[in-house]
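# step 3/5: fold
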Amino acid sequence: MTTVDRNLFAHFHRRFVERADDELLATGDGTSFTYADVDRMSARIAAALRDAGVETGDRVSVQVEKSPESLCLYLACLRAGFVFHPINPAYKAKELETLLHHAEPAAVVCDPRKEPDVAALAASAGARVVLTLSADGGGSLIERAERASDGFATVPRSTHDPAALLYTSGTTGSPKGILLSHGNLQSNAAALTSAWGFTAQDRLLHALPIHHVHGLFISLGCVLSSGASMTWLPRFTVDDVLCHLPRCTVMMGVPTYYTRLLAAPELSAELVGGVRLFVSGSAPLLPETFAEFERRTGQRVLERYGMTETNVIASNPLEGERKPGTVGLPLPGVDVRIVDDRGTVLAAGEIGHIQVRGPNVFTGYWRRDAADDFTEDGFFKTGDLGVIDDDGYLAIVGRSKDLVITGGLNVYPREVEAVIDALPGVVESAVIGVPHPDFGEGVVAVVVPERGSVLSEHAVIEACKAQLADFKVPKRIVLADELPRNVMGKVQKNVLREAHARLFVQAR
């Protein structure tokens, strides 16, 4: 039976009522928004979108900069029963076009500066309306919202109704749109709020972007489920984070954030004395970073593991041993197992494929069959390789796919290779990730030029910059006579990774 309280916003709204006059967030310049402020604005945005013709179940694609109003837009989509589709603001026209045509949104919200270009792409994808939202909270969406009613009633949703659509592939091949349901997001928010001890007395330093799971669902889920508050920064900078950390109790970040903080001489135990919890995710945290952060601050970073398809799967404990190099124990209600190539469950200490089952696991792909990604007994095949120790702690030892995670952001090699292979003078390319002291992994392209070509590293990088988001652009181009292949003709990327493992170490 469909009931109002299955809507994720209804789950959050209890705190909006209890904490109406209390601060939900403050921006870096000190502008404050109460729970009531955000409640009213999200209701008006929901009403404005409904008045523009968006209906329950429609996708709303959003490519805007992080702002308090963009948070209100996300909440508006939840409460109205729309499917929120966040898009990285760094994505350029070709990337955006692919996503819009696959998602087929009813509405697109973009930065006012990009409106002419986005409007044409949105129209070709069948969108009924294009609205704008700027980083400073202006734009046509807010103008419409200011004229709309703030009495918007939350639309009933079931556990399995989709709440969000996120993509994990690039512009080549068939995009994979992951549908996360109200039940997926609510179960994970409740589990993490409990596991990490969030209360209304907490204040989160939120410097993450909100176009992916970490900053959007994990961080906000804990805050809004507990009635906590946030310091809301538009992006991570060392100076801003060090300035605001003394007034916060929790920080969530990717490993790059912690390596950059460690490079700042101001970081000390005294500075972060009021912080009770540092969380790291989205990419592996090096044991050396874990140890150095503890030495400098006295704090042991809590590392966890998740995916877009699952939200958080496992976490090191709030109370108890946090093992460096592991991602901790499965969350309550989440089953994790390690299997061999035949699907046989392996014993503790044996490396194999990670499979997961639980209420946090996605409901399916948008317009794509997900049957091959699940086992007959309902476990999701993560594509990661891992091992569980005798204490039940999970460690990630590799990826069965060639995904590169740089600064906590996913880069799919095939997308970058397609851009490089199309360049004049290129025979073929292979994109890999190798250890990087700042980003965890640095994107590297090994390129085979045509005989006699004057292809240069600079030219390839500049061509990539014109077509790809900056984080996808290779940091180094290595020219080679040929790519290593196995007997079946497949490029051996493991050989390339080994050959160039010290590329960024040597460059320092």
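# step 4/5: annotate
The mean pLDDT is 93.
# step 5/5: archive (pending)
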